[in-house]
Amino acid sequence: MVTLTRGVVENSINSDIGDAGTGTAFGLPKPEGTLGHTIAWQVVYTGTMTSATTLLQISMDNSNWATADTNTNTSGCYRIVTPIIARFIRVYHTADVGATNVKASIIIQ
Predict the structure, then answer these.
(1) Residue 31: pLDDT above 70?
(2) Beta strands 37-46; 101-108: pairing state
(3) Ramachandran bin of 76, using left for φ above 0, alpha for ψ from -120 to 50, beta for the remaining angles
């Protein structure tokens, strides 16, 4: 498993997924200090999206996942979430109508 490096963008999802798709999970390094990580994530759709739900999820054990942020914007998104206190992170695309490709990226700021 790849561990995210501060300032390096990693793609969790980059594919022609249909209704749902679990993105690649990444390890998170130990945060500096006690405030956790500031995470930026971006979702880009190819084609005209009419309905979409994409989740930024975190986990302490890489098995049980909790939602840290949700995007339902059919134009995609660029969002910043803080504080993230977890050991693992991924993007989960739960559903879409209309797009031909979904790309979701994560970066530690």
Answers:
(1) yes
(2) antiparallel
(3) left
Backbone angles phi, psi at 69, to 5 degrees: -160, 155
Could you give phi then psi for residue 46, rounded to 5 degrees? -100, 130
Q: What is the SS3 assignment for 23-59? A: CCCEECCCCCCCCCEEEEEEEEEECCCCEEEEEEEEE
User: In degrees, to the nearest 5, what angle opens at C-alpha 103 toward C-alphas 99 and 105?
Assistant: 150
Write the CB contacts of 75 (distance below 8 Å, at least 6 apart in sequence).
Answer: 45, 49
Integer Cα distance of 25 and 3 in angstroms: 9
Report the candidate in 37, 24, 17, 32 with the shortest Cα–Cα distance to residue 91.
24
- Give the position of tokens 């500031």: 38
Q: 32-52: per-residue pLDDT in tens? A: 777 899 999 999 988 888 888
Domains plus CATH for the chain? 10-108 (2.60.120.680)
